[in-house]
Amino acid sequence: RASAERASAERASAERAAAAEAAAAAEAAAAEPPPPEEPWPPAPELPDTSAAGAVVLRVRMPDGTCTTLAFKPEHTLHDVLCALHHSSGTPLSTRRHYQLAAGMGSPPCKDPNATLAALGLSGRLAVNLSEVPAAASH
Length: 138
Hints:
single chain, 138 residues, alpha+beta, four-stranded mixed β-sheet, 2 helices, 17% strand
């Protein structure tokens, strides 16, 4: 009986040590800072707002501020995000996903490779930029 009690006590001690070790490892992993955020590439060259064929977007940013920039029809959503990050005064995170909505009834664009032309955007437009919730961005 004494040996059974001793074995039980040793098992309990080993389980406590393993739990403490796992907790210490989890705490160490949580304490590690995340890797640095990737910087945005330079903004693309943008046309003047009066240039023929320019797509002029008045963008309502996620923080509620607005900025107006002109783009070429072949610019992508990623190009728009780069330009907005560098010139709007509202920093955007490369760790987050964004969507551009061009008005009532049209679905928001989340594809960073979609061109403005492919999205049917032309002329002068008011659009909303919003962050895509993490669960919906994958």
